[in-house]
Amino acid sequence: MSCLMVERCGAIAFESPEQNAICFCTLGDAQVRGQAGVLSERRGSFPFIDFRLLNTTANSGEIGTKKKVKRLLSFQRYFHASRLLRGTVPQTSLHLLDEDYLGQAGHMLSKVGTWNFDIFLFDRLTNGNSLVTLLCHLFNTHGLIHHFQLDMVKLHRFLVMVQEDYHNQNPYHNAVHAADVTQAMHCYLKEPKLARYLTPLDIFLGLLAAAAHDVDHPGVNQPFLVKTKHHLASLYQNVSVLENHHWRSTVGMLRESGLLSHLPVEMTQEIEQQLGSLILATDISRQNEFLGSFKIHLDNDALSLEDAEHRHFILQIALKCADICNPCRVWEMSKQWSERVCEEFYRQGDLERKFELEISPLCNQHMDTVPAIQIGFMTYLVEPLFDEWRRFTDNTPLTEAMMSHLRKNKARWRALHHNQHHRGDDGSGQRSEVVEAGP
Ligand SMILES: [Zn+2]
User: Fold this and answer.
1) Is residue 312 part of a domain?
2) Does position 154 have pLDDT exceeding 90, yes or no?
3) 293, 352, 426, 433: least surrounded by Cβ within 10 Å?
4) What's the 323 CA to ligand 1 centre distance in angstroms?
5) Residue 325 Cα, ligand 1 centroid: separation in angstroms?
6) Distance from the alpha carbon of residue 209 to the mean position of ligand 1, in angstroms
7) What is the distance between the terminal CA atoms of the chain, rounded to a whole angstrom?
8) What pLDDT does 417 receive?
């Protein structure tokens, strides 16, 4: 059962002739197939772990006990283990920061509820710990630590696990995206229409779902996992494969950390189920289903936020909005996210080309330009959802700001698209006017 390394150029791919399947990882996540071939513990989005490598590391001194070796089986945690994991666990998030940056990061946190919050800068100021730092802060400011009597050490351990299980080699689906979605979710939870009805449990679930909604994302989409016969596609029977994995991984980490172990079992079960319902709502293939329900509720003025089910539905919509809100950010940040997501698409396309698989839509870097991808994304997914969100929130300043950025950003992509192709095609097959875009 040998593993054949067939490529090493930014991404490493492995071919398993026995299973006629391909598994891969990005540079830096170097791994080869384990002797046993199958993981005995929770399996991540990367199927193959080198047990020899783990043993070597285990003998090196720092990590020696059987228990600790077992922990390494999540290799994201192993390869990305920060000094936070190796050292003592601080009591508050800001203690994680280097002295020089503490003041600046702390200052940024005082403005965490503003829409132009620069998550990239925050990530740099926190030495790549934006997700842990942000969540500790938000849990504290929302009073969740006190309300749920959370153990700070367990909370920190859980958040580090989540952050470390994101693949920072992914240009887009990494821990900074999770932090960005969480920050957006925090902004949405403060919307007056919603805020006055939200219970601590709603806020806890909303923030937790946002933080964990893409955990252990492999950097490729579901069709890729299906056509390469990835074990996750088989496990979840080709239905919301990634989202199911993000959810079940989160539940695993919740249990492993013991974060909720002091709560009644009925309550933890309820939390796990609702977390699943929220994370599964981010499956973009279910967009029309949610959009249709949202429209019907708004048309009939049928949303009653005293009702827990209706609040849950709005939390699902809010998370969906937060997940695709990049085009509603200021241009400088929006553009970065656009380039990152396209880079991730192109990497998938390159792998598909290499393995002579059909190149997925939007993944061909020779055909699918960033402006064309973005204009299509805005037209068919972002605008329809945010038009309804605007109806729900009643044109609040935040919604107005988001819609304004969305309009301006689309105009800029159109101008760039026009410059590239010397025509005004907006990617939707219809001619459109090229707008002079401002900053
Ligand atoms: Zn996401």
Assistant:
1) yes
2) yes
3) 433
4) 5
5) 10
6) 10
7) 56
8) 93
Ligand 1 centroid, distance to 341 Cα (angstroms): 10
User: How far is 125 from 118, CA to CA, in rounded Å?
Assistant: 11
> Cα–Cα distance between 173 and 161 in angstroms, integer?
16
What separation in Å is there between the alpha carbon of 177 and the centre of ligand 1? 7
In a domain, 205, yes or no: yes
pLDDT at 83 over 90: no
Question: What is the token pair recorded at 227?
Answer: 């056509």
Question: What backbone torsions phi and psi does residue 28 show, to the nearest 5 degrees?
Answer: 105, -20
Q: 115: which DSSP letter?
A: T
Residue 315 has pLDDT above 80, yes or no: yes
Stated length of the chain = 439
Query: Is residue 62 over pLDDT 80?
Result: no
Q: Which residue numbers are catalytic?
A: 173
How far from 66 is each of 50, 53, 69, 369, CA to CA, in Å? 16, 15, 5, 49
Distance 179 CA to ligand 1 centre (A): 10
Question: Exposed/middle/buried for 46, CB within 10 Å: 0-12, 13-18, 19+?
Answer: buried
* pLDDT-above-90 percentage for the chain: 72
Residue 431: inside a domain, yes or no? no
- CATH number of domain containing 158: 1.10.1300.10
pLDDT of residue 50: 31
Domain tally for the chain?
1
Is 131 domain-assigned?
yes
Rounded to an integer, what distance in angstroms lies between the CA atom of residue 103 and that of residue 385? 37
Q: State the CB neighbour count (10 A cutoff) for residue 155.
A: 22
Q: Round the average pLDDT of the chain to a whole number and report it.
A: 81
| Residue 284 to residue 280: CA distance in whole angstroms | 9
24-45 residue pLDDT tens: 433 333 332 333 333 334 456 6
The rounded distance, in Å, linking the Cα atoms of 271 and 212 is: 14
pLDDT digits (tens, 9 = 90+) for 386-439: 999 999 999 899 999 999 999 999 999 999 999 887 754 444 444 333 333 333
Closest by alpha carbon to 23, among 301, 228, 252, 176? 228
Q: Which residues pair with 13 in a beta bridge?
A: 7, 24
Query: Rounded to the nearest whole angstrom, what is the distance from the C-alpha of residue 214 to the centroid of ligand 1?
Result: 5
Is 363 a residue whose pLDDT tops 60? yes
| pLDDT band, residue 103 (cuts 50/70/90) | confident
Distance CA 123, CA 333 (A): 13
> Is the per-residue pLDDT at 281 higher than 60?
yes
Range of the domain at 169: 99-323
